[in-house]
Write a structure and sequence with these properties.
The chain is of the alpha+beta class and 480 residues long. The protein folds into two domains: 2-216 and 383-479, Aminopeptidase (3-Layer(aba) Sandwich); 219-279 and 299-381, Alpha-Beta Plaits (2-Layer Sandwich). The protein has helices at 16-36, 49-52, 54-67, 138-157, 180-186, 188-191, 235-238, 245-256, 286-289, 303-312, 352-364, 391-405, 419-427, 454-479, and strands at 75-79, 87-92, 101-107, 127-129, 132-134, 164-170, 196-199, 211-216, 218-227, 233-234, 315-322, 333-334, 337-346, 372-381, 384-385, 410-414, 433-435, 451-453. It is globular, with a radius of gyration of 23 Å. The two termini are 45 Å apart. The chain binds zinc ion (ZN).
Protein backbone atom coordinates (compact mmCIF):
# COMPACT_ATOMS: atom_id res chain seq x y z
CA UNK A 1 0.00 0.00 0.00
CA UNK A 2 1.29 3.40 -0.89
CA UNK A 3 -0.48 5.24 1.86
CA UNK A 4 2.12 4.51 4.47
CA UNK A 5 5.11 5.39 2.40
CA UNK A 6 5.82 8.34 4.68
CA UNK A 7 6.27 5.99 7.62
CA UNK A 8 8.20 3.35 5.61
CA UNK A 9 6.54 0.51 7.45
CA UNK A 10 8.78 -2.49 8.11
CA UNK A 11 7.51 -6.04 7.59
CA UNK A 12 4.88 -7.26 10.05
CA UNK A 13 6.38 -9.19 12.93
CA UNK A 14 9.11 -6.60 13.24
CA UNK A 15 8.62 -3.65 15.54
CA UNK A 16 5.51 -1.98 16.89
CA UNK A 17 5.07 0.16 13.77
CA UNK A 18 4.50 -2.85 11.57
CA UNK A 19 2.11 -4.41 14.05
CA UNK A 20 0.18 -1.16 14.41
CA UNK A 21 -0.12 -0.82 10.64
CA UNK A 22 -1.42 -4.35 10.20
CA UNK A 23 -3.92 -3.95 13.07
CA UNK A 24 -5.23 -0.70 11.62
CA UNK A 25 -5.68 -2.25 8.18
CA UNK A 26 -7.23 -5.53 9.28
CA UNK A 27 -9.08 -4.81 12.51
CA UNK A 28 -9.49 -1.11 13.17
CA UNK A 29 -10.62 0.40 9.87
CA UNK A 30 -13.62 -1.88 9.26
CA UNK A 31 -14.90 -1.12 12.79
CA UNK A 32 -14.05 2.58 12.63
CA UNK A 33 -16.03 2.81 9.39
CA UNK A 34 -19.04 1.27 11.12
CA UNK A 35 -18.65 3.80 13.94
CA UNK A 36 -18.42 6.63 11.39
CA UNK A 37 -21.85 5.69 10.01
CA UNK A 38 -23.54 6.16 13.42
CA UNK A 39 -24.97 9.70 13.92
CA UNK A 40 -24.01 9.68 17.61
CA UNK A 41 -24.21 13.43 18.17
CA UNK A 42 -23.32 14.94 21.50
CA UNK A 43 -26.38 15.72 23.68
CA UNK A 44 -26.14 19.48 22.98
CA UNK A 45 -26.90 18.76 19.32
CA UNK A 46 -29.53 16.05 19.76
CA UNK A 47 -31.98 16.60 22.56
CA UNK A 48 -33.56 13.20 21.86
CA UNK A 49 -30.20 11.43 22.13
CA UNK A 50 -31.40 8.97 24.74
CA UNK A 51 -34.47 7.83 22.81
CA UNK A 52 -32.52 7.82 19.54
CA UNK A 53 -29.97 5.44 21.09
CA UNK A 54 -27.06 6.38 18.82
CA UNK A 55 -24.63 7.06 21.67
CA UNK A 56 -25.51 3.71 23.24
CA UNK A 57 -25.07 2.00 19.86
CA UNK A 58 -21.62 3.55 19.39
CA UNK A 59 -20.60 2.63 22.94
CA UNK A 60 -21.61 -0.98 22.47
CA UNK A 61 -19.84 -1.20 19.08
CA UNK A 62 -16.60 -0.01 20.72
CA UNK A 63 -17.19 -2.32 23.69
CA UNK A 64 -17.72 -5.39 21.49
CA UNK A 65 -14.71 -4.57 19.36
CA UNK A 66 -12.52 -4.19 22.45
CA UNK A 67 -13.71 -7.54 23.80
CA UNK A 68 -12.58 -9.22 20.59
CA UNK A 69 -8.95 -8.12 21.02
CA UNK A 70 -6.22 -10.59 21.87
CA UNK A 71 -5.57 -9.14 25.33
CA UNK A 72 -5.64 -11.51 28.31
CA UNK A 73 -8.22 -10.64 30.95
CA UNK A 74 -9.48 -7.56 29.12
CA UNK A 75 -12.74 -6.30 30.60
CA UNK A 76 -14.93 -3.81 28.74
CA UNK A 77 -18.06 -2.36 30.30
CA UNK A 78 -20.46 0.47 29.60
CA UNK A 79 -21.57 2.51 32.61
CA UNK A 80 -24.54 4.82 32.55
CA UNK A 81 -27.95 5.28 33.96
CA UNK A 82 -31.04 6.99 32.72
CA UNK A 83 -30.42 10.59 31.69
CA UNK A 84 -26.67 10.24 31.62
CA UNK A 85 -24.60 9.56 28.51
CA UNK A 86 -22.75 6.23 28.49
CA UNK A 87 -19.17 5.80 29.64
CA UNK A 88 -17.06 3.00 28.21
CA UNK A 89 -14.30 1.60 30.43
CA UNK A 90 -11.83 -0.90 29.00
CA UNK A 91 -9.56 -2.44 31.60
CA UNK A 92 -6.50 -4.42 30.52
CA UNK A 93 -4.67 -6.02 33.47
CA UNK A 94 -0.90 -5.63 33.71
CA UNK A 95 1.47 -8.16 32.15
CA UNK A 96 4.96 -9.41 32.98
CA UNK A 97 4.79 -8.41 36.65
CA UNK A 98 4.52 -4.70 35.91
CA UNK A 99 2.64 -2.48 38.36
CA UNK A 100 0.87 0.85 38.11
CA UNK A 101 -1.96 2.12 35.90
CA UNK A 102 -2.05 4.19 32.74
CA UNK A 103 -5.33 5.97 32.02
CA UNK A 104 -6.07 6.76 28.37
CA UNK A 105 -8.86 9.19 27.50
CA UNK A 106 -11.05 9.60 24.42
CA UNK A 107 -14.67 10.41 23.55
CA UNK A 108 -17.24 8.91 21.20
CA UNK A 109 -19.83 11.69 20.88
CA UNK A 110 -19.73 13.80 17.72
CA UNK A 111 -20.29 17.31 16.50
CA UNK A 112 -23.19 17.79 14.05
CA UNK A 113 -22.68 17.74 10.25
CA UNK A 114 -22.10 21.52 10.01
CA UNK A 115 -21.91 22.83 6.47
CA UNK A 116 -21.83 21.33 3.01
CA UNK A 117 -19.49 18.38 2.59
CA UNK A 118 -17.63 17.90 -0.70
CA UNK A 119 -19.18 15.80 -3.45
CA UNK A 120 -18.98 12.14 -2.57
CA UNK A 121 -18.39 12.85 1.12
CA UNK A 122 -20.86 13.09 3.99
CA UNK A 123 -20.71 13.24 7.77
CA UNK A 124 -21.98 9.72 8.32
CA UNK A 125 -20.60 8.13 5.17
CA UNK A 126 -17.11 6.72 5.75
CA UNK A 127 -14.95 7.30 2.67
CA UNK A 128 -11.31 6.25 2.35
CA UNK A 129 -9.17 8.30 0.01
CA UNK A 130 -5.43 7.66 -0.04
CA UNK A 131 -4.21 8.01 3.54
CA UNK A 132 -7.40 9.56 4.85
CA UNK A 133 -10.67 8.31 6.29
CA UNK A 134 -13.36 10.97 5.88
CA UNK A 135 -16.40 11.29 8.14
CA UNK A 136 -17.62 13.09 11.25
CA UNK A 137 -15.93 11.83 14.39
CA UNK A 138 -13.23 9.81 12.66
CA UNK A 139 -10.48 12.07 14.05
CA UNK A 140 -12.47 13.82 16.79
CA UNK A 141 -12.40 11.49 18.53
CA UNK A 142 -13.59 8.07 17.32
CA UNK A 143 -10.07 6.85 16.54
CA UNK A 144 -8.97 7.20 20.20
CA UNK A 145 -10.46 3.98 21.60
CA UNK A 146 -9.05 2.03 18.66
CA UNK A 147 -5.60 3.57 19.04
CA UNK A 148 -5.51 2.96 22.80
CA UNK A 149 -6.67 -0.66 22.73
CA UNK A 150 -4.47 -1.44 19.71
CA UNK A 151 -1.51 -0.01 21.64
CA UNK A 152 -2.16 -2.60 24.35
CA UNK A 153 -2.67 -5.37 21.84
CA UNK A 154 0.57 -4.74 19.95
CA UNK A 155 2.60 -4.57 23.17
CA UNK A 156 1.16 -7.93 24.23
CA UNK A 157 1.73 -9.45 20.80
CA UNK A 158 5.36 -8.34 20.97
CA UNK A 159 5.65 -9.74 24.54
CA UNK A 160 6.60 -6.35 25.91
CA UNK A 161 5.57 -6.21 29.59
CA UNK A 162 3.30 -3.34 30.55
CA UNK A 163 1.30 -1.92 33.46
CA UNK A 164 -2.46 -2.02 33.68
CA UNK A 165 -4.19 0.17 31.10
CA UNK A 166 -7.64 1.66 31.57
CA UNK A 167 -9.21 3.29 28.52
CA UNK A 168 -11.97 5.73 29.40
CA UNK A 169 -14.27 6.87 26.58
CA UNK A 170 -16.96 9.38 27.45
CA UNK A 171 -19.93 10.57 25.39
CA UNK A 172 -20.60 14.18 26.42
CA UNK A 173 -17.30 15.87 25.52
CA UNK A 174 -18.62 17.99 22.67
CA UNK A 175 -21.22 19.36 25.09
CA UNK A 176 -18.57 20.37 27.64
CA UNK A 177 -18.40 17.00 29.45
CA UNK A 178 -21.33 17.63 31.83
CA UNK A 179 -21.63 13.90 32.62
CA UNK A 180 -17.94 13.27 33.18
CA UNK A 181 -17.58 14.38 36.84
CA UNK A 182 -20.36 11.97 37.89
CA UNK A 183 -18.80 9.17 35.87
CA UNK A 184 -15.37 9.83 37.37
CA UNK A 185 -16.91 9.65 40.85
CA UNK A 186 -18.68 6.37 40.04
CA UNK A 187 -15.56 4.86 38.47
CA UNK A 188 -13.04 6.18 40.97
CA UNK A 189 -12.54 2.80 42.67
CA UNK A 190 -11.88 1.17 39.29
CA UNK A 191 -9.57 3.93 38.14
CA UNK A 192 -7.50 4.09 41.30
CA UNK A 193 -4.71 6.64 41.14
CA UNK A 194 -3.15 6.52 37.68
CA UNK A 195 0.61 6.89 37.23
CA UNK A 196 0.19 8.48 33.82
CA UNK A 197 -2.72 9.94 31.88
CA UNK A 198 -2.70 10.01 28.09
CA UNK A 199 -5.33 12.12 26.34
CA UNK A 200 -5.86 11.30 22.66
CA UNK A 201 -8.29 14.11 21.82
CA UNK A 202 -5.83 16.81 20.88
CA UNK A 203 -4.06 18.09 17.80
CA UNK A 204 -0.86 18.27 15.80
CA UNK A 205 0.60 21.07 13.71
CA UNK A 206 2.01 18.75 11.05
CA UNK A 207 2.03 15.08 10.16
CA UNK A 208 5.81 14.64 10.22
CA UNK A 209 6.39 14.25 13.97
CA UNK A 210 4.51 13.70 17.22
CA UNK A 211 3.04 16.76 18.89
CA UNK A 212 2.57 17.46 22.54
CA UNK A 213 -0.17 19.84 23.72
CA UNK A 214 1.29 22.43 26.10
CA UNK A 215 -2.00 24.18 26.84
CA UNK A 216 -5.68 24.29 25.93
CA UNK A 217 -8.13 27.14 25.96
CA UNK A 218 -11.28 27.14 28.07
CA UNK A 219 -14.74 27.81 26.68
CA UNK A 220 -17.99 29.59 27.46
CA UNK A 221 -21.09 28.71 25.50
CA UNK A 222 -24.07 31.03 25.88
CA UNK A 223 -27.34 32.03 24.27
CA UNK A 224 -28.30 35.70 23.96
CA UNK A 225 -31.82 36.64 22.97
CA UNK A 226 -33.22 40.11 22.17
CA UNK A 227 -36.96 40.58 21.86
CA UNK A 228 -38.67 43.80 20.72
CA UNK A 229 -42.20 42.72 19.73
CA UNK A 230 -44.66 40.00 20.70
CA UNK A 231 -45.12 39.15 16.99
CA UNK A 232 -43.62 40.24 13.67
CA UNK A 233 -45.10 43.30 11.92
CA UNK A 234 -44.86 44.94 8.48
CA UNK A 235 -41.40 46.51 8.29
CA UNK A 236 -42.85 49.39 6.27
CA UNK A 237 -45.21 50.27 9.07
CA UNK A 238 -42.90 49.74 12.08
CA UNK A 239 -39.46 50.45 10.53
CA UNK A 240 -38.16 53.75 11.89
CA UNK A 241 -40.28 53.43 15.01
CA UNK A 242 -39.51 50.01 16.53
CA UNK A 243 -35.79 49.27 16.89
CA UNK A 244 -34.78 46.00 15.24
CA UNK A 245 -33.72 43.12 17.44
CA UNK A 246 -30.76 42.42 15.16
CA UNK A 247 -29.27 45.89 15.68
CA UNK A 248 -29.77 45.66 19.44
CA UNK A 249 -28.12 42.25 19.47
CA UNK A 250 -25.18 43.78 17.59
CA UNK A 251 -24.88 46.43 20.31
CA UNK A 252 -24.76 43.68 22.94
CA UNK A 253 -22.12 41.74 21.04
CA UNK A 254 -20.11 44.97 20.67
CA UNK A 255 -19.90 45.04 24.46
CA UNK A 256 -18.03 41.75 24.24
CA UNK A 257 -15.69 42.53 21.36
CA UNK A 258 -14.42 45.39 19.25
CA UNK A 259 -16.25 44.75 15.95
CA UNK A 260 -13.33 46.08 13.89
CA UNK A 261 -10.50 44.09 15.46
CA UNK A 262 -12.20 41.19 17.23
CA UNK A 263 -10.42 42.17 20.45
CA UNK A 264 -12.42 40.88 23.43
CA UNK A 265 -13.30 43.80 25.69
CA UNK A 266 -13.76 42.05 29.04
CA UNK A 267 -10.61 42.22 31.15
CA UNK A 268 -11.69 39.12 33.09
CA UNK A 269 -11.38 37.08 29.90
CA UNK A 270 -7.72 37.89 29.29
CA UNK A 271 -4.73 36.01 30.68
CA UNK A 272 -2.32 38.05 32.79
CA UNK A 273 0.71 37.17 30.73
CA UNK A 274 1.18 35.08 27.63
CA UNK A 275 4.13 32.74 27.44
CA UNK A 276 6.37 33.12 24.44
CA UNK A 277 7.41 29.48 24.32
CA UNK A 278 6.10 27.54 21.37
CA UNK A 279 8.04 25.26 19.12
CA UNK A 280 7.13 26.50 15.64
CA UNK A 281 7.14 23.62 13.19
CA UNK A 282 9.26 24.28 10.15
CA UNK A 283 7.10 25.77 7.45
CA UNK A 284 3.86 26.10 9.41
CA UNK A 285 1.72 28.43 7.35
CA UNK A 286 -1.63 29.73 8.54
CA UNK A 287 -2.90 30.27 5.00
CA UNK A 288 -2.31 26.59 4.25
CA UNK A 289 -3.77 25.41 7.56
CA UNK A 290 -7.28 26.71 6.84
CA UNK A 291 -9.52 26.79 3.75
CA UNK A 292 -9.16 30.57 3.47
CA UNK A 293 -10.73 32.51 0.59
CA UNK A 294 -8.13 34.24 -1.61
CA UNK A 295 -7.24 37.72 -0.40
CA UNK A 296 -8.49 37.32 3.17
CA UNK A 297 -6.43 39.33 5.66
CA UNK A 298 -5.63 37.21 8.70
CA UNK A 299 -5.45 38.36 12.30
CA UNK A 300 -2.05 38.35 13.99
CA UNK A 301 1.24 39.88 12.86
CA UNK A 302 3.03 36.70 11.78
CA UNK A 303 2.47 32.96 11.77
CA UNK A 304 4.38 32.70 15.04
CA UNK A 305 2.17 35.37 16.59
CA UNK A 306 -0.92 33.56 15.25
CA UNK A 307 0.01 30.37 17.08
CA UNK A 308 0.40 32.29 20.33
CA UNK A 309 -2.88 34.15 19.71
CA UNK A 310 -4.69 30.90 19.07
CA UNK A 311 -3.41 29.47 22.34
CA UNK A 312 -3.71 32.52 24.61
CA UNK A 313 -6.24 35.01 23.23
CA UNK A 314 -9.95 35.07 24.10
CA UNK A 315 -12.14 35.14 21.02
CA UNK A 316 -15.85 35.34 20.28
CA UNK A 317 -17.71 33.36 17.60
CA UNK A 318 -21.42 33.40 16.82
CA UNK A 319 -22.18 29.77 16.11
CA UNK A 320 -25.94 29.75 15.59
CA UNK A 321 -28.91 32.07 15.17
CA UNK A 322 -32.65 31.76 15.63
CA UNK A 323 -35.47 34.09 14.78
CA UNK A 324 -34.12 34.80 11.29
CA UNK A 325 -35.66 32.95 8.34
CA UNK A 326 -33.54 31.47 5.57
CA UNK A 327 -32.79 34.01 2.82
CA UNK A 328 -35.36 32.58 0.40
CA UNK A 329 -38.08 32.98 3.05
CA UNK A 330 -37.16 36.50 4.16
CA UNK A 331 -40.03 38.97 3.77
CA UNK A 332 -40.45 42.66 4.51
CA UNK A 333 -41.11 42.08 8.16
CA UNK A 334 -39.76 43.56 11.36
CA UNK A 335 -39.06 40.38 13.25
CA UNK A 336 -39.93 40.10 16.95
CA UNK A 337 -36.77 38.46 18.21
CA UNK A 338 -33.17 37.51 17.37
CA UNK A 339 -31.25 34.87 19.29
CA UNK A 340 -27.53 34.12 18.94
CA UNK A 341 -25.57 31.20 20.29
CA UNK A 342 -22.07 32.34 21.13
CA UNK A 343 -18.86 30.53 21.87
CA UNK A 344 -16.07 32.32 23.70
CA UNK A 345 -12.65 30.72 23.86
CA UNK A 346 -10.77 31.54 27.04
CA UNK A 347 -7.01 31.63 27.70
CA UNK A 348 -5.71 28.53 29.54
CA UNK A 349 -5.27 30.25 32.90
CA UNK A 350 -8.57 32.18 32.99
CA UNK A 351 -11.08 30.87 35.55
CA UNK A 352 -14.20 29.91 33.58
CA UNK A 353 -16.56 30.65 36.50
CA UNK A 354 -15.27 34.24 36.83
CA UNK A 355 -15.46 34.65 33.05
CA UNK A 356 -19.06 33.41 33.13
CA UNK A 357 -19.99 35.95 35.83
CA UNK A 358 -18.35 38.79 33.84
CA UNK A 359 -20.17 37.77 30.66
CA UNK A 360 -23.57 37.59 32.37
CA UNK A 361 -23.15 40.93 34.05
CA UNK A 362 -22.03 42.82 30.93
CA UNK A 363 -24.81 41.39 28.73
CA UNK A 364 -27.57 41.79 31.30
CA UNK A 365 -26.79 45.39 32.33
CA UNK A 366 -28.95 48.16 30.82
CA UNK A 367 -30.71 46.43 27.94
CA UNK A 368 -30.34 48.55 24.77
CA UNK A 369 -33.53 50.55 24.06
CA UNK A 370 -35.18 48.72 26.96
CA UNK A 371 -35.59 45.56 24.88
CA UNK A 372 -36.23 42.20 26.57
CA UNK A 373 -32.79 40.58 26.80
CA UNK A 374 -32.24 37.03 27.99
CA UNK A 375 -28.79 35.57 28.62
CA UNK A 376 -28.20 31.93 29.42
CA UNK A 377 -24.75 30.41 29.88
CA UNK A 378 -24.96 26.75 28.81
CA UNK A 379 -21.42 25.70 29.50
CA UNK A 380 -18.27 26.96 31.19
CA UNK A 381 -15.09 24.90 30.88
CA UNK A 382 -11.67 25.74 32.26
CA UNK A 383 -8.61 25.67 30.04
CA UNK A 384 -5.44 23.89 30.98
CA UNK A 385 -1.75 24.69 31.01
CA UNK A 386 0.61 21.72 31.20
CA UNK A 387 2.94 21.63 34.19
CA UNK A 388 6.59 20.94 33.39
CA UNK A 389 6.81 17.38 32.08
CA UNK A 390 8.42 14.60 34.10
CA UNK A 391 11.76 13.60 32.58
CA UNK A 392 10.81 9.97 31.92
CA UNK A 393 7.60 10.94 30.09
CA UNK A 394 9.42 13.50 27.96
CA UNK A 395 12.08 10.92 27.14
CA UNK A 396 9.58 8.22 26.16
CA UNK A 397 7.61 10.62 23.95
CA UNK A 398 10.75 11.99 22.31
CA UNK A 399 12.03 8.48 21.62
CA UNK A 400 8.68 7.54 20.09
CA UNK A 401 8.74 10.51 17.73
CA UNK A 402 12.30 9.69 16.69
CA UNK A 403 11.43 6.01 16.20
CA UNK A 404 8.41 6.91 14.05
CA UNK A 405 9.56 9.93 12.10
CA UNK A 406 13.26 10.41 12.72
CA UNK A 407 12.49 13.80 14.29
CA UNK A 408 11.93 14.94 17.87
CA UNK A 409 8.35 15.93 18.80
CA UNK A 410 6.99 19.45 18.69
CA UNK A 411 4.79 21.13 21.26
CA UNK A 412 2.22 23.89 21.01
CA UNK A 413 -0.76 25.45 22.75
CA UNK A 414 -4.02 24.14 21.33
CA UNK A 415 -6.87 26.54 20.62
CA UNK A 416 -9.64 24.09 21.54
CA UNK A 417 -10.95 22.85 24.86
CA UNK A 418 -10.90 19.45 26.56
CA UNK A 419 -12.68 19.81 29.93
CA UNK A 420 -11.36 16.40 30.99
CA UNK A 421 -7.80 17.69 31.43
CA UNK A 422 -8.72 20.42 33.91
CA UNK A 423 -10.94 17.95 35.80
CA UNK A 424 -8.20 15.33 35.89
CA UNK A 425 -5.51 17.75 37.04
CA UNK A 426 -7.80 18.77 39.88
CA UNK A 427 -8.53 15.15 40.85
CA UNK A 428 -5.00 13.80 40.51
CA UNK A 429 -2.62 16.69 41.12
CA UNK A 430 0.93 15.87 40.11
CA UNK A 431 0.07 12.93 37.84
CA UNK A 432 1.93 13.30 34.54
CA UNK A 433 -0.42 14.03 31.68
CA UNK A 434 0.32 13.71 27.97
CA UNK A 435 -2.15 15.30 25.57
CA UNK A 436 -1.59 14.50 21.93
CA UNK A 437 -3.65 13.71 18.86
CA UNK A 438 -4.29 13.57 15.16
CA UNK A 439 -6.17 16.82 14.53
CA UNK A 440 -3.70 18.36 12.12
CA UNK A 441 -3.69 20.47 8.95
CA UNK A 442 -6.92 20.12 6.98
CA UNK A 443 -8.47 17.52 9.29
CA UNK A 444 -11.26 20.01 10.00
CA UNK A 445 -12.82 18.64 13.16
CA UNK A 446 -16.16 20.40 13.79
CA UNK A 447 -16.36 21.58 10.14
CA UNK A 448 -17.24 19.79 6.89
CA UNK A 449 -14.90 17.20 5.32
CA UNK A 450 -13.40 16.03 8.62
CA UNK A 451 -10.81 13.33 8.06
CA UNK A 452 -8.53 11.07 10.04
CA UNK A 453 -4.94 11.07 8.79
CA UNK A 454 -4.28 7.32 8.95
CA UNK A 455 -0.47 7.33 9.19
CA UNK A 456 -0.76 9.81 12.07
CA UNK A 457 -3.35 7.60 13.77
CA UNK A 458 -0.95 4.66 13.54
CA UNK A 459 1.88 6.83 14.85
CA UNK A 460 -0.21 7.94 17.85
CA UNK A 461 -1.03 4.26 18.46
CA UNK A 462 2.67 3.41 18.67
CA UNK A 463 3.40 6.50 20.78
CA UNK A 464 0.71 5.41 23.25
CA UNK A 465 2.27 1.96 23.39
CA UNK A 466 5.70 3.44 24.10
CA UNK A 467 4.33 5.66 26.87
CA UNK A 468 2.56 2.67 28.45
CA UNK A 469 5.74 0.62 28.22
CA UNK A 470 7.77 3.41 29.85
CA UNK A 471 5.21 3.86 32.66
CA UNK A 472 5.57 0.16 33.48
CA UNK A 473 9.32 0.37 33.73
CA UNK A 474 9.00 3.49 35.79
CA UNK A 475 6.37 2.36 38.31
CA UNK A 476 7.86 -1.11 38.68
CA UNK A 477 11.25 0.45 39.26
CA UNK A 478 9.69 2.68 41.93
CA UNK A 479 8.00 -0.23 43.66
CA UNK A 480 11.17 -2.28 43.61
ZN1 LIG B 1 -12.72 15.94 20.66
Amino acid sequence: MSRNASLSVPPVGGDLRGRAHRSWEDDVLPALERYTAIPCLSPDFDEDWEAAGHLAEAASLLQEWSRDRAVDGLHAEVLGDSGRTPLLLVDAPATGGRTGTVLVYGHLDKQPALGEWRDGLGPFTPVRQDDRLYGRGTADDGYALFAAVTAVEILDAASIPRPRVVVLVEASEESGSPDLPGHLDAASATLGAPDLVVCLDSGCLSYDRLWLTSSLRGNLVATVSVQVLSEGVHSGSAGGIVPTSFRLLRLLLDRLEDPRTGEVRLAALHAGNRPAVQRMPPGWDATAAFPIVPGLELEGASDEDRLVRRAWTPVLAVTGMDGIPAVRDGGNVLRPCTTAKISLRLPPTVDAASAKAALESVLSAEPPSGARVEVRVDGAADGWAAPPMDGWVDQAFTRASEELFGTPPGSFGEGGTIPFLAMLTERYPGVPLVATGVLGPGSNAHGPNEFLHLPMAEAVTVATARLVEAAGTRSTGKAG
